[in-house]
Structure formats: C-alpha cells, structure tokens
Design goal:
6-stranded parallel β-sheet; alpha/beta; binds iron/sulfur cluster; binds cobalamin; 4-stranded parallel β-sheet; 494 residues
C-alpha cells in the first residue's frame, strides 16, 4: 500500500512571517512518531512518505496516489488536521488520525477519520493498516521495552529537516498540573544507553550536523544522562549543536555539567516558570529562586546557552510578578526567553479545573499553542495577559540585547537575533493591523471582553459568570450550558 503521514501546522504557523521567524530561530526538525510508524510499515513492505507542514507548503495533489493517509495531531494543529482529513476523505482516501490530541479527544477526531488510534501506536499500526483491527477507536497497547522500537526513518521524510530528534525516554517522572505529555506517555520509561548510542551512530552516518534530545526532561535520571554523555564523548558522537530540556537541579551535579559541555549540549530550555515562590509551590515545581540563580550561573560557567521558559497567567501571579520574572531573566543574561501562556490542554488537570470553574473562554483549538490566552486568569484580565505576553517578548528581544548576543556568542547568533527582533516587531504590527480590520479576529474579541473580565478578576466572580467568546457576551452560570455550543465534552471522550 502507499501510505502518507502528515504533521499539519496551524493557520498561525503557516503564515509567511511565522515561517520566517521559524527559519531564523532554529533548525528544521520533525515529530518522530510518524517517522517511527513509517519505518515499521516500510519494513512490512509498504511504500511510505512523511510530510511536515511546519516547514513547507504541502500540495494535497501529492496525496492522490495514497491508499491511506495518517495524520498526527497536537491540540493547536487539530483544526487543520481535520480540514485536511475532510478534503482527502471527500476524494475517497482512507484516513487514520493519531497523536497527543486525538488520544484525549478520540470522539471528536472520529468525525473526520475512518479510524482513530489513541496512545503510542507502534504495537498495532500494522494491524490497523492491514484491516485486522477495524474498530473506529483503537486504544494502542503501551510499548514497554523501548529498545524494541525502530529508530525514526528520516529517508521517508519529504520536507526539510536538518536536525535529528532523539527521545531517550518516554514521559516524565514528574506530574505538573498543566502538562499533557506526562499523561500521554505514561508511565515514564527509559531506553538503554546502548540503544541510544546506536541511534546516534546512525545519525552520524547520515551526516546530521545537529541533534536534539527532545526528552521532556533529559536529566531526570542524572546517572543515566552521564552514561550517555560519556559514551558520546568517547565514541565521537558529538554534534555541532544539541538542544535539550532540563530542570534547575542539573546545576547540582558538576560532573554532569562538565560532560554536557564536552558533549556539546549547547542549548537548554529550563522551566523557570515564575519568580513568585507561591506560584512555584502551587504547581509542585520543587524549585526555589536560589536554585534558578545557581542554575543560570552554572550554565554560563560551562558555556551552555540558557533558554529561560516562563509560564504566564498562573493563579498566584499578577502583572508585576510577570514583569519581575522577565527582568530577572534579563539580569541572568539568558540566551533566549520563552514566555508560555498557561494553556489548559484537554486531558490535563487544569483543563478539568478551569472547565468546572467556567473559566475557559475559547473553544478554537488552534489557539491552544501557549502563545494565546484561552482562559480567565485569577489576577489578570485575559486581554492584559495577552498584552503582557507580547510586552515580555518586546522587553527581552531588544536591538541592544542583540548586540550583547553578538558580543558574547558571535556574529551569526547576533545577526539571527537582530532578524528575530525585526520579525517580532513586524509580527506585532501585523497582529494589531488584523485586529483592526477583521471583526472576528481572536485578539479583537479578547480586547472587546476586557472591561467585563476586568470586573470578573477584580471582584472576583469567576465561577459565577462565564464569557461566551463566540457571541461576545457574558452569561450567568445558571443559564449557561454545561458545555459551550460546539465545545467538545471531554467526559464523553476519554
Ligand atoms: C519535536 C517537537 C516539536 C518540534 C517539531 C514539531 C513539528 N514539526 O510540528 C517543534 C519544536 C517545531 C515543535 C513545535 C510545536 N510544538 Co511541539 N513537541 C515536540 C516534542 C518535544 C517531541 C515530539 C515527538 O517526537 N514525540 C515522541 C513520539 C514517539 O511521539 P509522537 O510523535 O506523539 O508519536 C506517537 C503517538 O502520538 C502516535 N502517533 C503519532 N502520529 C500518529 C499518526 C497516526 C496515523 C497514528 C495512528 C498514530 C500516531 O504514535 C506515535 C508513536 O508512539 C513534543 C513532546 C512529546 N513528548 O511528544 C512536543 C509537543 C508535541 N509540542 C507541543 C507544542 C505546544 C508545540 C507548539 C504549539 C509550540 C509553540 N508554541 O510553537 C509548536 C506547534 C507546531 C505545529 N506543527 O503547529 C506540545 C503539544 C501539547 C498538546 N497537547 O497539544 C508538546 C506535547 C510539548 C509539551 N510538553 O507540551 N514541537
Ligand atoms: S517537569 Fe516538564 S515534562 Fe515533567 S510533568 Fe512537569 S511540565 Fe511535564
């Protein structure tokens, strides 16, 4: 059979300015699930290709010869995934949908697919494709021994990809209330060090210059992380640049830091989240302000660039807390700031909580991307939070700081930063412009509800009133439907 997998990109991510920002910000890469499933199907004798819409426009005519189309969904690309599915289904194609969003919203996804697979699909993909399993919703059994899973096959990827993504684990031993991966990939599992090293050897042979550890928390098990790094150094599997996700506790282990430096783990995203200790405690972060400072100093000493991630809109944070956090990130000379608006992804505990408290104000999944406000925060009106997100970027990515980056990290990094500064400014103008001319624009709607939500936040009456985002009016909880019109009810789904 001819099988095509596609990872769609949301409307926001397909606009030219965003693509330009993507190009400046980092190197092209890929979600690994479709590449692994593709490899399993290729080995079973099928012809397989994979497309990533994030980096290249996809011509749907390419799917004319496909017998089956497999679509990966995360929440923000789900509406686009469904649109592609509907178009191709009209042409008679067999559609199978999987991924993290379809896993928690399978009922919703079945409206656009012949079959929906929830969870990690390695064990059953062949049977689903061959028609041995015919259920509309298929719950995939958990792969326990990760070493038995083949490596992602980059030869079937038809869109640009400069970086090999490696996941040495699945899931995370922690359980933050806003996190969706710890639920999707549960329980936490590790691959053997040998198996990881074999994968790196394979990417060296394929001449990949860049390699990322995309584990949710690469240093969760420090002993194992050190064993991987030692072998990378000894056996010559060091790449030009390697990004990874870590926690502030990595600074407690000097040997780990030295190995990271030697193995060229050059950029790390660390969840600083907030400078308000109450907020850190409320999300069970097990981290103090002095841990954050210690981590920043240690990374700078070992020339590892810090990408500081902040969560904006937590219940105990007000505008001043956010500003303080951004200023702090500037003082520790982080390489990048990644502000993320708290997002109630379906399937998470905060989604359930906010839904019960009637605090969710938007049902269009494409805005569930950590850059847009979809709920009423406790201490900040939604529009103010949205503005604060833009302001944080503006305050951090200044022209002056670009020259600082050039001085500390070289000309290439400096030029990238200046271009990013320009693209961000253009982006802000674009957002303002479209909000002025489009009546159903997301930001315009947020702005229009600002006075009502200001009152809600001040009084606070969250839970007694909810805002009907689609019709731009507030309603009493008593007269409001338990679920918004067109808003999928998760209780039916999971
Ligand atoms: C690599 C990665 C990226 C890369 C590449 C993504 C791309 N090209 O779109 C980059 C950095 C560009 C990226 C961008 C974004 N990402 Co991202 N990303 C990841 C990451 C770290 C790894 C993905 C991966 O390889 N997973 C491991 C493999 C084994 O799992 P998998 O791909 O899900 O595949 C399994 C199943 O899902 C299933 N499956 C997958 N596809 C299919 C298809 C079919 C037909 C079937 C049957 C089954 C199936 O079987 C697979 C094998 O077990 C995940 C975190 C994670 N742990 O998954 C976040 C993650 C998916 N990203 C996330 C987000 C929010 C984003 C952004 C919105 C961030 C932003 N603000 O810009 C953007 C959106 C991009 C877009 N396409 O629109 C969230 C999604 C949350 C959610 N519930 O929606 C995640 C979960 C991170 C997180 N902790 O919250 N991302
Ligand atoms: S530490 Fe990170 S990956 Fe782990 S549960 Fe918390 S947010 Fe999710």
């Amino acid at each position: 059979m001819n099988i095509i997998f596609v990872t769609p990109a949301s409307d926001i991510r397909r606009n030219l300015l965003y693509r330009l920002g993507n190009f400046i910000y980092g190197h092209t890469n890929s979600v690994t699930g479709p590449l692994i499933l593709g490899k399993i199907l290729k080995d079973a004798g099928h012809q397989v290709s994979v497309y990533e819409e994030l980096y290249q426009r996809i011509d749907l005519k390419k799917f004319d010869d496909a017998d089956v189309v497999g679509i990966y969904t995360m929440t923000s690309n789900a509406p686009r995934a469904y649109r592609i599915a509907d178009i191709l289904r009209k042409k008679g194609k067999r559609i199978i949908i999987g991924g993290i969003h379809a896993t928690v919203m399978p009922q919703e996804a079945t409206e656009h697919a012949d079959q929906v697979v929830t969870g990690e699909a390695e064990m059953i993909i062949n049977d689903v494709i061959n028609g041995k399993i015919r259920d509309r919703i298929v719950h995939a059994p958990l792969p326990i021994n990760l070493d038995e899973i083949p490596f992602p096959d980059y030869s079937i990827l038809k869109t640009p990809c400069k970086t090999a993504n490696v996941l040495t684990t699945r899931g995370c031993p922690f359980d933050c209330s806003f996190c969706s991966t710890s639920r999707m990939f549960s329980p936490y599992r590790e691959r053997s060090v040998d198996n990881v090293i074999n994968e790196l050897r394979y990417y060296k042979k394929l001449c990949f210059k860049y390699m990322n550890f995309e584990d949710d928390n690469f240093t969760a098990n420090k002993k194992r992380a050190k064993a991987i790094l030692r072998r990378m150094i000894d056996e010559g599997f060091v790449f030009r640049e390697t990004f990874f996700f870590g926690r502030t506790d990595l600074a407690d282990d000097e040997e780990l830091l030295c190995l990271m430096e030697k193995a060229n783990l050059s950029r790390v995203l660390v969840g600083i989240e907030s400078l308000n200790q109450k907020s850190l405690d409320s999300i069970n972060k097990h981290q103090t302000i002095s841990d954050i400072k210690k981590c920043a100093e240690a990374l700078s000493r070992h020339k590892i660039r810090l990408i500081a991630s902040l969560v904006l809109g937590m219940d105990d944070d007000n505008i001043d807390d956010i500003r303080q956090s951004v200023n702090f990130v500037r003082t520790i000379e982080a390489y990048q700031l990644q502000p993320a608006i708290l997002t109630p992804f379906p399937g998470t505990r905060i989604y359930e909580k906010y839904k019960e408290e009637k605090r969710i104000i938007n049902n269009d999944w494409q805005y569930y991307d950590m850059m847009n406000v979809n709920f009423i925060p406790k201490l900040i009106p939604p529009w103010e939070l949205q503005k604060e997100f833009f302001k944080s970027l503006k305050r951090f990515y200044t022209l002056r700081s670009s020259f600082g980056i050039m001085k500390n990290f070289g000309i290439e990094s400096g030029i990238r930063r200046i271009l990013l500064f320009l693209v961000l400014r253009l982006g802000f103008i674009g957002i303002f412009f479209f909000a002025m001319i489009e009546s159903d624009n997301f930001y315009r709607k947020l702005w229009k509800m600002k006075n009502k939500t200001k009152r809600l936040v001040r009084e606070p009456k969250i839970g007694s009133v909810f805002y009907d985002f689609q019709n731009s009016k507030t309603q009493d909880v008593k007269s409001s439907p338990s679920v918004w019109p067109g808003y999928p009810d998760k209780t039916e789904d999971v």
